[in-house]
Amino acid sequence: MTAHLAPAFTALRYLLRWTLIAGAVAALAGSASALFLFALEAATAYRLQHGWIIWLLPLAGFAVGWVYLRWGGTVETGNNLLIDEIHHPQKVVPLRMAPLVLAGTVLAHLFGASVGREGTAVQMGGALADQLTNLLRLKPEDRRILLMAGISAGFASVFGTPLAGAIFGLEVLVIGRLRHDAILPCTLAALLADQVGLAWGVHHTHYGAGAIPAITLWTVAATMIAGIAFGLAALLFARATHRLAGFMKQHVAYAPLRPLIGGVVVAVAAGALGTQRYVGLGIPVIVEALQQPLPLWDALGKFAFTVTSLGAGFKGGEVTPLFFIGATLGNALAPLLHLPFAMLAGVGFVAVFAGAANTPLASTVMALELFGPEIGPYAALGCVVAYLFSGQAGIYRAQRSEAKPASAMPPL
Question: Can you tell me where the transmembrane regions are (predicted)?
Fold first, then answer.
């Protein structure tokens, strides 16, 4: 009888062990994300009330660049360091990653860089989780799972999408393959981290994709056409960001000068346009894209401002700007494809991210969590097609490639 129950006892030990570990990871990551979101909200409000502060963006960029040059070391590579450590565990991620990326991102938003927030939350979640490695004397294979749980917890708590966060931590490592051995820890960490953030008083933006049309031959075909556009936008974004970053590193040897130069470009461009529409997170414009028709210029403007900011070395992440680009691009394409602009904006919101991050499953689930189940078939179709057309190289250089089909577009 005991022999027959052995598998159940083994599973129970695994369940209890990883429930405790995931709970600790969630408490750390969820609390860090809450602090970050509160600081981000305050910084954004101050910038909007004092528009002149964007002219100090070059100095803020230089300061953050200097701090990273002086104390950053390996943590400067951000999300890629976490992914590399999961693939080839070497040493615990330095704890300084968390405060450095937190401060760097808040300053970037305070002074008007066009960056996101996912990178910050993921790096804080991974770095804080990894501090448990030595405390719990984890083996390398368990440390991999711990880092994945930290990534899931950070993503889930900053966006309020626990299921998408869980899948993101499983999907982002290797293109075309999921790590099934980490499903329980990632799911628990993501669910609990989201609850921790809510307990701290975090409020996430509520989106609506309007009325969803019935599935017809045309709506399917039109969504696939839009998915191609979303995938190509993701490909161009990733290539442009990487190429600008490479150009800056090649031609500007002193690292702090790179964000200083980028800050000058962003500040002058924003001043010339007379608007802060394309700096910061841009959530109000995303909401607009789901409520009223917008020009294609909005997607192009955010694309240019974000590539410049990230390519120059500002901290934060790419995901929320990708939401902006996708939502406004979908909004602009809707009349041409005879689809509701709110619905196609919602699909673009997740599909450009799916193509750029090579995470179609997490992006589809995110659409379900943010917009409701009715958009599911269109979101899934848009995300998968965008993924297929976005090429091998995404926004995370450390991603490994397993089974992604060849891109429909030749290398740039």
Answer: 20-40, 52-69, 145-170, 215-238, 259-279, 299-324, 336-357, 377-396
